[in-house]
Amino acid sequence: MIDKVTLILILHNRHKNLDRLLEYYDEYNFPILIADSSVQEHQFTKKKSNWTYSYTPGVSFPKKIEIVLAQVTTPYVVMCADDDFIIPKSILACVSFLEENKDYAIAQGLSIRYEKESLARGNIELGAIYGHIKCIEPDEPLQRLYNMFENYRAVVYAVFRTYVLQQSYQGAGSQIKNLFLNEYITAFIPILYGKCKEIPILYQVREYALDSDDKTAIDIDALLREKQYANEVNVFKSFISTKMAAILMISHKKAEDIVDKIIQDFASKIHIARTTISPKKRIGNLIRHLPIVGPWMIQKNRSIENAKRLNAYIDIHKEKKEIDVVSKLLIKYNK
């Protein structure tokens, strides 16, 4: 099974993180493609026959992904960011599922996060990213697409059928430049080819940091509202519409209307969620300003709520072995 899936490690200037990931996957013989767009080439301490290094400095994220996807020869592929971990046995579980279920194009498992800032405190704090399992299983492609953007969650780091991801990114490198829009290539296109399964096992441990790309990148609501991004958004819409029209055999105009409505509705939901202040948050803002104890109370309450959400989402004790392996590497490479 391990020879049926290629792992793409995505690197940009965080060379220590790549060393960490290569150590993590060292005992596994996945074919590994390293997509590096860093300013400087990576200095390997060792090399293995199943590692292939692709150095493309200065290219956009979609372009470097398009380049490395063209090199994949296995039937399945999975991408992993340099600051995350995807559990090897869970990759294989997803491959096994896709092998047995030909009407599915995407498979992943449960994702949790570690707080980067907690590493400095010597106590790795884990948290749930989502609160429930989400599978997208209607037979009709457009209904699957609509479901993708209801209670949206990213699938960019899922296991895909290789030809599906290759088709999704083909031509993207010359058109899509915005980092944030890149994620939505994997949301719009693959789901039109097949269903999406979320398996109830620990699949991914993601970094959560205030300075991470998903915190600093412009979100889709801002992209739509600010005129300076109008051309980027229009190019993206046209790219997705062209792909959709070909897959579903509909007119480009109909595809454009579908894409535009989905993006507008999705951006509106993001805007409302971001600008609405709940009663709970208002109370929290008041407590935060209490002298001495305020910040401590907020942090304590967050930790308690975080633990509750995590335990409701995943059986941490069952996944302890995998979490311990990741934790040891996080501590080792944080020194």
Automatic annotation (TrEMBL):
Keywords: Transferase. InterPro entries: Glyco_TIGR04440, Nucleotide-diphossugar_trans. The keyword Plastid does not apply. GO terms for molecular function: transferase activity. The keyword Mitochondrion does not apply. This is TIGR00180 family glycosyltransferase.
